[in-house]
Amino acid sequence: MSESKELNRCAYKWFWGVVDLSVGLEWNPLIAEMITAASVMIELWERVLSPRQRADLAEGFAAKDEQSARVAAAFLAGASRLGEASPSRMTSFGAEKQSSPALDRARAEWREQALRAGLPLPLAGARLRHADPEHITAAVLPRLTGCDCAGYVDGEQCRDRDHQGLHLAAYALNRHGADVLHADTVAKAYRATGGPAWDAVRAALVNAVAHHVGIKAQSLASLIRPTHPTSLTAFSRLVSQSNRLSREAASRGFASPFDALDVMSEQARLHAREAVSRMRVTG
Ligand SMILES: [Zn+2]
Predict the structure, then answer these.
(1) Looking at per-residue confidence, does 103 or 74 come out higher?
(2) What does pTM read for this prediction?
(3) 20: part of which helix (H) or strand (E)?
């Protein structure tokens, strides 16, 4: 394999998550934080939820057993920040921080290395469409988890009954729950996704999350088949909690895009365990 191809396979590791300026400049690859959220969901499931809550979640997912529901929930918690992997979000590296020469240098360095690794960043200053990352997640995730129906652009729901649950699950990943997203909102978000080059890198990102929890992203429909948005309300809240805890655990720049995925996975599990232990101690 040529060097550039090898690098392109790792382009997804250059999506950034938390940028932390508190002690020097650190940033985490988004994938590291996504798989931490996935591991937090596992920890919550195994150590915090009651047997009754676990059974209710499995029933809401219409999963064949609790183990299927658990890995699907972990995968979805991890995938829920997928929408941050968009052109407008990625070109705003550190934008919410106060500007400084150190931040400018870090942004320029990140950009140069990300481009070299194959991230299809737009030209500096290009006009970009914006959309809420949660809406972008809803627009793109069904296609990455097994819906390959022709004739439907992302943002539209296909008519395949086997795929209905994929749309419902993707819609449940916003903080307001599964029953609030309007089709027009999702269709508008689709126009901010950046097109096929971005689709390819987002697919690698989602596959990495799936690898972390031990499933194939495209086989999600074989694990869960939710049929009604209100059955996923408790799950939506757990996803928010997993993301919050993973962000707290992740703010120190614990991973680098040069790390192997397995190394990141080990770190993510450790941080998730610590985050949930802290939560149990502090109540
Ligand atoms: Zn479909």
Answers:
(1) 74
(2) 0.94
(3) strand 16-20
Sign of CA dihedral 236, 216, 119, 249: positive
Average pLDDT, the chain: 90
CB 198 within 8 A of CB 147: no
Q: Which two tokens stand for residue 180?
A: 């609030």
CA of 39 to the centre of ligand 1 (A): 28
Beta bridge partners of 16: 29
Read off the amino acid at residue 195: G
Q: Tell me the CB-side half-sphere exposure of residue 257, using CA atoms within 13 A.
A: 26
Local confidence band at 96 (pLDDT 50, 70, 90 cut-offs)? confident
Walk me through the domains of the chain, giving residue ranges and CATH numbers.
3-282 (1.10.3210.30)
Residue 26 forms beta bridges with which residues? 20
- The set of residues, in sequence order, having a beta carbon less than 8 Å from that of 203 and lying 6+ positions away, is 144
Residues 6+ apart with CB under 8 A from 48: 276, 279, 280
From ligand 1's centre to the CA of 94, what distance in Å? 37
Provide the CB-side half-sphere exposure for 123 (13 A, CA).
3
More confident call, 20 vs 51? 51
d(CA 87, ligand 1 centre) in Å? 26
Least confident of 21-25, 122-126, 191-195: 21-25
Residue 127 structure tokens: 């006009």
Q: Contact, 208 vs 31, CB < 8 A?
A: yes
**58 CA distance to ligand 1 centroid (A)?**
23
Ligand 1 mean position, distance from CA 148 (Å): 5
Q: What is the mean pLDDT of residues 73-84?
A: 98
| Count of other CB atoms within 10 angstroms of residue 270 | 14
- pLDDT tens for each residue of 245-268: 998 876 667 899 999 999 999 999
Distance of CA 84 from the midpoint of ligand 1 (Å): 23
